[in-house]
Amino acid sequence: MPDFKARKLNITVSIQPLAYFIEGIAGDTASYDVLVPKNKNAETFEPNFSTMESLQNADLFIGVDMPFEKVWLPRVIHNNNIKTLILDTPIGLKDMPHIWLSAKNAKRIAYVIYRQLSELEPSNEPYFKYRLALVLGRLDIVDKKMAKVLSTMPKKSFVTYHSSFNNIADDYGLNEISLQTHGKSYGISKIMKISKEAKALGIKRVLAELEDANTDIKALAKDIGAKVVTIDPLSSDYENNLLHIATEISKSYQP
Question: What would be the CATH architecture of the domain defined by 9-147?
């Protein structure tokens, strides 16, 4: 393994899954903070004063274009001249939510972060490159395992409350049927439409993020004779969580 210089970068990431990439690629060359605490909804999160204050000391901020990143962070970042990396644009997925919930996207994210770290600390580039290769190797394994698990589905459609897993659907040729798409409101007609489609498909499990397990998705599940399975898209156990999500999607037709 290549040597590295000891100066530590201070990195702030918006959500917990991004810490996986800092730990994996930067290793001992960086410390990091996560803005959205565990068990908080990143879509509706509003940072407090102490959160904003911690960001002021960052050498680099890495985000995924969450609503709070657009509203709360620009002034702090500009006033403190903080290098910023919003991941959807450099990996070619502008305005696509939940880009980290894909092993294929994760490999692109890892490479973009490697390049940014190398720009900040060129002397540590060989160290970052070595660790990037390890991360990409692990993500290749996750990608293959997800493909194998999802290939067992008798049909290609699955039902979810929020369109969180569209990247997984795109990666493996599946069809995500969601009540809510990109935060847009929906009415009773959409619930009835999805209920009819899910019954015809024989869906037995519907997915919801922890904070989205609300009355509507529960009513839909009851109407079609299915159960609600909750998923945490912000889990810190990144690789295992991707496999867990794939496994739960694959069980959509199991009682």
Answer: 3-Layer(aba) Sandwich (3.40)
